[in-house]
Structures are given as structure tokens and as C-alpha cells.
Amino acid sequence: MNTEAARQAKFNRLAEAYGTDLYRFAMWICGNDALAKDLVQETYLRAWKALDKLNDPKAAKSWLLTILRREYARTFERKVPKFTNVDDVVVADEHELEPQERMEIRLLRQAIMKLAPKYREPLMMQVVLGYSCKEISEALKVSKSAVMTQLFRAREQLKLSLQEDGVTGNVHGLF
Q: Which of 24, 79, 109, 119 fits as disulfide partner to 115, beta carbons 3.0 to 4.6 Å?
């Protein structure tokens, strides 16, 4: 097998393994389906160009998410994106939720989006993508203790925000 074919195979494995996670993370940070898909495509393009720099396959997911985060930041350098209200995004759900559950989810999303990016991003990486504190610290290039502090503060701010909205209890296992 030649090196170009091996490179193509390596890239295909990365795209298949992490495509869903990249799209999900892009949707959370931008809230727009079209922009999320563009971010994933730009991430793939940059990953393809820099594929030889990926030495540790275990770090591939963090590497790709870092590329995606940086690509999202670049969108603000080029143009101001059209923002979409997260409440307006319709996500197909296999099981119809009860009205109370839908309200809780809506309030939870609103509260999460009100968090400062410093707290919102590590919380989403942990809750949505299932990252460990170590993986989050590597992706965000901060210490593990800083991540733990940010996660604690994010949950405390969420709890206060939700209590102000009349929501009590352990909403979706976050607290």
C-alpha cells in the first residue's frame, strides 16, 4: 500500500469515528445547522492538510475538536454569522416528551447558553461529548484543576439560574 492510500485510509477512519461528535459539538457552539456542517467540513479540510502532524491516534478526537473550535473562532474574523435561537432549532426526537420535560429542557438550554463561554464550553464537552476532565484540559489547554473549577462553577450558575426560573431538583442528572 502506498503512503497516499495509507494517508487516505487514516483520514477516512478519523472522519467515520468522529464525524457525529464533531457535528454535535459544532451545533452546540454555533446553534445553526448550516454553519455547523460548514465548520465540520472546514475541520476536515484543515485536518487533511495537517494529518501528518497527528502523531498520537488517541489524541485524534481532541485534535479535531480543537481544529473545529479554532475554525469557529475564525468565522468571527471573516464575517458575523447569523445567530439562531437555540429554542427555534427543531431536533427530531424518537420519543415524544411530556410538556414538563420539554419545558425543563428548554429552560436548561437557555440557562446553558447564558453561561460565559469559559464555563459553557467545558460543561458541554463533559455532558454532551462525554469527555473526562483530563480530555477537556488537553483540548482547552488549561490545567485539570481549572477544568474542575470551571465545571463546578458552571453547574452552580446553572442551578441558580434554573431555581430563579422555578425548576428544582436534579435536572437531567447535571447536579
A: 119
| Side-chain half-sphere CA neighbours of 29 within 13 A | 28
Instruction: Report d(CA 12, CA 6) in Å as an integer.
Output: 10
81 class by beta-carbon count within 10 Å (0-12 exposed, 13-18 middle, 19+ buried): middle
pLDDT band at 106 (very low <50, low <70, confident <90, very high): confident
3-state SS class at 84: coil
- Its pTM stands at 0.49
Q: Are 138 and 62 in contact (CB under 8 A)?
A: yes
140 exposure class (CB count in 10 Å sphere: 0-12, 13-18, 19+): buried
